[in-house]
């Protein structure tokens, strides 16, 4: 059975990477530079000591405006976050721009190159960008309150970036329609009873979906992928679409999307943490303040709010902080070996490998079709 690389081979190959690629994959091993490391003179960056109320007053005095670029599929994914923030901090004019992370990062690179930076804060799925932006001197070294309580793999040692939330991708299913036949692991998805009953995000359009499908291919083999491709999957752009198709009773199973790790009472959809060693994935969405941010104090307020105890406790599954206990029945995300928590950042750092997997899945599932789900936002949304 042909595969690209086994996990052991991939890890061995990783040791041969150059220093630049290795520092991108392993942020805590990155060498400090005058622009990207600790401040000149070696003075460490200390955690924020101001309260949220003090930062709020300072942000109002700064002008009361904040622009955030957030990775996502549709604007409504951030509606609850915008409402919660503006209700707690009235008078702060928060502009939230949601787009695919792979468009946001290219957009920001162009804005930096042309001196037209719009966002104060960015939080994305493209994990590989943050060590690079740090090295290039584009990120503000800043440690919000509770920074030290964030899992070490989810924060930059110099405060250039920190994960503010955990995301996880797996499969999901309609609780009633699947009934006792509900799949227990991804391997069950090729059962003939699920033919024409599966929706999925394109693995060749979104890197997290791509990594999930990569795990499936490595675990079950290419023959299994071929059988999955014959299942008549309904593919669509946007990782929200699998859950949407299941919720709207169009399909019974969704693949390549996030959901609640603990199924709420009365829910019709169950997002699966697979049994035993069957794969799924989890990672931390990294956030950073840009050094050229027009509203740095409001940006600091935003990161402190995200890492605050009430905010982290309100998460639907896991917190990025080690001192916040997950809901009953869950372990911290980094304690699930089958979540491949450390592997996704390494995968994202190797863009040649990403491209090989993307094009291979295109051969199995076809080209991506359709406009991006957030629409076409142009070069300077939020300006």
Question: How is this structure best described in words?
Answer:
- Helix 4 (79-88) links the parallel strand 1 (65-71) and strand 2 (93-99).
- Helix 3 packs antiparallel against helix 11 (296-307).
- The chain has a domain at 30-166 and 284-327: Periplasmic binding protein-like II (D-Maltodextrin-Binding Protein, domain 2, 3-Layer(aba) Sandwich).
- Mean pLDDT is 90; it is low at 1-40.
- Strands 1, 2, 3, 4, 5, 6, 7, 8 and 9 form a nine-stranded mixed sheet that branches.
- It has 14 helices and nine strands.
- By secondary structure, it is α/β, with parallel strands linked by helices.
- Helices cover 34% and strands 14% of the residues.
List the helices and strands and how they pair.
Elements: H1 7-14, H2 19-25, H3 52-62, E1 65-71, H4 79-88, E2 93-99, H5 101-114, E3 121-124, H6 129-135, E4 162-174, H7 175-178, E5 198-201, H8 207-220, H9 222-229, E6 234-236, H10 241-247, E7 253-257, E8 269-271, E9 281-289, H11 296-307, H12 309-313, H13 343-349, H14 351-365
Question: Could you name the key traits of this structure?
Answer:
383 residues; 9-stranded mixed beta sheet; alpha/beta; 34% helix; D-Maltodextrin-Binding Protein, domain 2
Quick recap:
This protein has 383 residues and is of the alpha/beta class. The chain has helices at 7-14, 19-25, 52-62, 79-88, 101-114, 129-135, 175-178, 207-220, 222-229, 241-247, 296-307, 309-313, 343-349, 351-365; strands at 65-71, 93-99, 121-124, 162-174, 198-201, 234-236, 253-257, 269-271, 281-289.
């Amino acid at each position: 059975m042909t595969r690209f690389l086994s996990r052991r081979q991939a890890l061995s190959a990783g040791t041969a990477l150059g220093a630049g690629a290795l520092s991108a994959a392993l942020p805590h091993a990155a060498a400090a530079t005058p622009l990207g490391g600790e401040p000149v003179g070696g003075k460490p960056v200390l955690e924020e000591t101001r309260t949220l109320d003090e930062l709020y007053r300072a942000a109002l005095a700064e002008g009361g405006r904040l622009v955030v670029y957030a990775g996502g599929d549709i604007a409504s994914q951030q509606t609850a976050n915008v409402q919660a923030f503006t209700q707690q901090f009235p008078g702060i004019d928060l502009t939230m721009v949601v787009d695919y992370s792979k468009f946001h990062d290219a957009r920001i690179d162009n804005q930096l190159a042309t001196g037209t930076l719009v966002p104060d804060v960015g939080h994305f799925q493209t994990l590989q960008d943050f060590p690079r932006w740090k090295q290039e001197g584009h990120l503000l070294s800043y440690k919000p309150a509770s920074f030290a309580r964030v899992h070490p793999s989810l924060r930059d040692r110099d405060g250039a970036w920190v994960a503010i939330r955990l995301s996880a991708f797996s499969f999901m299913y309609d609780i009633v329609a699947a009934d006792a036949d509900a799949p227990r692991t991804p391997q069950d998805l090729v059962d003939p009873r699920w033919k024409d009953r599966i929706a999925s995000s394109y693995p060749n359009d979104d890197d997290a979906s791509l990594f999930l499908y990569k795990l499936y291919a490595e675990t079950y083999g290419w023959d299994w992928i071929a059988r999955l491709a014959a299942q008549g999957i309904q593919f669509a752009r946007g990782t929200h679409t699998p859950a949407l198709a299941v919720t709207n009773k169009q399909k019974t199973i969704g693949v390549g999307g996030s959901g609640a790790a603990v199924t709420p009472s009365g829910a019709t959809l169950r997002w699966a943490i697979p049994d035993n060693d069957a794969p799924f994935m989890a990672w931390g969405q990294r956030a950073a303040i840009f050094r050229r941010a027009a509203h740095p104090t409001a940006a600091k307020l935003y990161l402190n709010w995200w890492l605050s105890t009430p905010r982290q406790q309100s998460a639907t599954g896991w917190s990025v902080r080690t001192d916040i206990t997950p809901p009953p029945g869950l372990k911290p995300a980094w304690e699930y070996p089958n979540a491949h928590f450390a592997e996704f950042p390494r995968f994202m750092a190797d863009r040649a490998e990403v491209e090989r997997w993307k094009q291979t899945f295109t051969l199995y599932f076809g080209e991506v079709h359709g406009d991006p789900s957030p629409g076409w936002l142009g070069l300077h949304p939020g300006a």
